[in-house]
Structure prediction request, 481 residues.
Amino acid sequence: MASKKSTLAATALRALRRKLPGRVSVTQAARFKASVDNLRLSFWPDAVVRVEAAQEVGMVLKLAHEYGIPVTARGAGSSATGSAVPLRRGWALDLTALDGVKIDRVARIATVGAGVVTADLQTRVERAGLFYPPDPSSKKYSTIGGNIACNAGGMRCVKYGVTRDYVLGWSGFLADGSPVQWGLPLKKYVSGLNLRDLWIGSEGTLGVVTEAHLRLVAKPEQRWMGLYAFKSESSALRAVRELLKAGIEPSILEFMDCQTVACAEAYTGKPLLSDTSGVSILLIELDGSAGELRKQRAALRAFMLDRTVAQREARGEMQAEALLQVRRTCSQSMYSLGDTKLNEDVVVPIEKQAELIRYTIALKKEIGLPTPTYGHAGDGNLHVHIMYNRGDASQSKRAKRGIKKLMRKVVELGGVITGEHGIGLAKVPFMGLQHSAAEIAAMRAVKDALDPKGILNPGKIFEPFEVWDHEPVAVKFSWDH
Prediction:
């Protein structure tokens, strides 16, 4: 059987190379690069296929379907959960050359290729006086196809929503290479079943997106930003709930617990706010017209008057960007606490965030490992980390126990195990906590119907997988700094 499979694979690869001469690579360098994403677990493909036109995707899938070759679509490889690695070998399908952009300023719609980098799209859109709000922290590297695959969010979700809220339609291919078009560059569309949304967040397991029609909004005239320190995590998160109840509408509302602030300060070598220590922080951006901004800023200042122990307001764009940079240092700064991190992008109801933070602090004491937490407090999406040294068997055991306890607590609080990273490989062990057997069976039925041979990103979401059984590889990405 193995010999027959290898013969079919070799025949398929020869046929692929004839159809795409010069764009199928089997070199060690190319295969290693496509073997790993930001989870840092490596699974080598048999070949890397670079497509330069949408119809070539259909051709590759048709051939793969005929010979039963696994296909894993890839963009930048910035996935945090292993969703972009070719677990079952086969072909890694590189979509980064699908980078066309067309902007309709009248309809306020951008039609973009799956390989377009998110930040590049935002820059082009803003030059046209428009705005594409989704802003994952990986936006300088991640692609629109990858954003759709995991329904990416980011800091501005509290006001503007996530990727799903901006996808009007898209084109792509089924597992057998058949072209499909779910939705059009139109703002009203109810023809047939809504398969467009079904694929968003499906991590490339149902088909391959090659082009998307994205809704744009008016670019805010101005923005303003402030940093606010609180004596405790509970007081900061209580302020979040009360602030939203008061009708203040931030475009960014980020939370950093005391552990995270300490890491950021050690990383930068200076306090985030003068004469403060051991504080929790809220980073708040307001945007809109000049009139709206004046009104919202006055309301926020009055609201914060007696609640904070220190605060700092940005004066101009450069200072606002400097405050944002504080938030962006959080992830890298945590490596002062351990050489390995477990980063869980959980979501709980806004009113349960304080309870979750109390739990992470108690968990830190129970397992004896740091649990720094930050994230999008405006929509309940907090990034809880457990930091440890992987080479220490005791720490690894405690980290594994801690992450399982955390996930159970999140579900108990009425939350979800992932808000924007997806399941991939890393979250597979927790699917049974989140979903009933009937729900998982229904999802599998959809997968089987659209991909009967199971060639699209196989092994993800549903198949048993344990990250602890695999050793991460040493690799440096362009976003590591």
About this structure: The chain has a mean pLDDT of 95. The radius of gyration is 23 Å.
